[in-house]
Amino acid sequence: xxxxxxxxxxxxETKGLTKRxxxxxxxDDVDLAxxxxxxxxxxxxxxxxxxxxxxxxxxxxxxxxxxxxVLGEEMPGKLHDVLxxxxxxxxxxxxxxxxxxxxxxxxxxxxxxxxxxxxRHARVQSxxxxxxxxxxADKKVRAYSLGMKQRLGIANAxxxxxxxxxxxxxxxxxxxxxxxxxRSLVRSLAADGATVFVSSHLLAEVEQICTHAAxxxxxxxxxxxTLAELRGAGQAWIRVLTPDPGAAAHVLTGLGLAVILSxxxxxxxxxxxxxxxxxxxxxxxxxxxADRQTAAPGEFAGAGEPVAPEAMVAAxxxxxxxxxxxxxxxxxLEDRFVALTGEGFDVVQ
Amino acid sequence: MTGGLLASELGxxxxxxxxxxxxxxxxxxxxxxxxxxxxxxxxxxxRGPAFLDRITQNGLFVGVTAMVxxxxxxxxxxxxxxxxxxxxxxxxxxxxxxLLVAPAGRIxxxxxxxxxxxxxxxxxxxxxxxxxxxxxxxxxxxxxxxxLSGDRIGTGEALARLLLIAAYLALSLLGLSAIGLFISTLTxxxxxxxxxxxxxxxxxxxxxxxxxxxxxxxxxxxxxxLDFGDLLRQPVSWESFAANAVLQGGYVAVFGALAYGRFITxxxxx
Lengths: 349, 270
Ligand SMILES: Nc1ncnc2c1ncn2[C@@H]1O[C@H](COP(=O)(O)OP(=O)(O)OP(=O)(O)O)[C@@H](O)[C@H]1O
Ligand SMILES: [Mg+2]
Fold this sequence. Notes:
The complex is a heterodimer of chains A (349) and B (270).
Chain A: E1 10-21, E2 24-30, E3 33-35, E4 39-43, H1 50-57, E5 65-70, E6 73-75, H2 79-82, E7 86-89, H3 101-111, H4 117-130, H5 146-157, E8 164-168, H6 176-191, E9 195-200, H7 203-209, E10 212-217, E11 220-226, H8 227-231, E12 236-242, H9 245-254, E13 258-261, E14 282-287, E15 300-301, E16 306-307, H10 309-318, E17 325-330, H11 333-341
Parallel strand pairs in A: 4-9, 4-10, 7-8, 8-9
Antiparallel strand pairs in A: 1-2, 1-3, 1-5, 5-6, 10-11, 12-14, 12-17, 13-14, 15-16
Chain B: H1 2-15, H2 17-39, H3 61-70, H4 74-93, H5 95-101, H6 106-139, E1 145-146, E2 152-153, H7 155-185, H8 190-209, H9 239-265
Antiparallel strand pairs in B: 1-2
Helix pairs in contact in B: 1-6, 2-3, 2-4, 2-6, 3-6, 4-6, 4-7, 4-8, 6-7, 7-8, 7-9
The complex binds adenosine-5'-triphosphate and magnesium ion.
Residues 50-51, 91, 168 of chain A line the site of magnesium ion (MG).
């Protein structure tokens, strides 16, 4: 975990945030720390409390316990100072079906006490342009497709200059083109210095756009950090298929790697499901040692210098080990996600 | 900047087809009355709604008669729809969360919503009065009016009295709007809030008709609804107007406070 900076450098900070619905803890003792300028992926299976957390952060619902700071201000006390600086998409878009897209945005902008009427038209136009809805601006929202509504919802979050964007499943219902556009939009917002807090259960999407992420499970925050930390940047390993496990283990240990002889081909914790070893060959899994977690991905730190995979193969071959298979593997976010939230299909209550 | 939001609210209200449908329905009441009177033979005095028998002599009475007819149900119905929809409609649609995140501010939004309902409350009786005066003038002679006190006033002043009655009805419905606003903060289902508001207006009138509940009558928000006859005397007697204003003010204060108390702490989960 990267050391959390002083409060001023966090865009969102919660301590022990809790929300109870009757018996159920929808959000349970959550300590979020979203650094300023981050693109923060907020992950979790259905019903894990993502949207509820977002509602608490935006002052839509009152927390049962805990404290929050958003953009450095105490919430919900400073709600009216903070919210004009925040753009949000919460649990899908919602609009007046009998108004056009542009009229809907004007309505929402009129609700913002800082949304100046003189610049309204221009801001609405540019927000529509950013999401590619200029041509549908005068169409009634009733006649919008799901993806068009989603785009309009994102446009609504972009009506003013925002320091923080809270986007709850922004790519829901979008076509591949729209998904790409949202990704590039998020990147451009981040490039402008905004913090983007984006909830999703699309891991691939989060891996592509986020710098940081947190994982929720059944209301609890089970992991949080930079993407590399979450994947376990150290969690890379090599897999060697050989009929000479003893000699191979000796060589690899000599290179400073921790070696597991894995008759069932088992991967390290959180690792990928292994394939079946061929014939009676043994599978050796060697991981970077815990004290050498700083090597760049693709390199395996030994006791001394980092060792490149090709050097390992050379060393094994030089020692007469019959190498029948050699692979370098790295945990993906999905492995981590499944390891933390469970694989079952049932929603955790 | 609340003016901007109020303007937007009114734009929203009066751009809805539903609002226009209700106003058209209200305008249809005097038209139906006038046409019915026109095509039928003379109405015997003392039968039908108050003032009905005077229509053939003076078209302006179409407006008065139509207002008498619409007070018990039609006006409360439309006001119930608008007031019940205020918060619950936004909540049911999901736009409430975006208004609050914008941030509209809960108090500001509540005030604007009540303001919108209040404007409708002014417009609705006005539509009845003007449609009545219009159709009355088209189908019947218009001229000086004999008041309940026996005095005669000119057409211009008669029109002013008609508008005064419309204003009286607007005032009368402010309390009901506040009740509707409060009920609207209790639910995310607008139809439920509308129905509850309309039902309450009927219940209040039923209670007002039971002599056994004499003591309760002055406290019922519908108690003075039909007491606008005082405005048809010379000089105008303002007694019921004042009593009504105090009563409605009380309802607005109480139910406004309840709506505030409820809405300010409400979890917006829709
Ligand atoms: N209004 C409510 N009343 C009672 N329980 C609720 C309410 N809203 C949410 N919950 C419960 O809180 C938990 C978290 O719900 P939430 O909507 O935050 O999940 P989520 O992570 O956003 O899920 P999804 O990925 O499906 O959007 C769920 O178990 C849900 O049943
Ligand atoms: Mg959700």
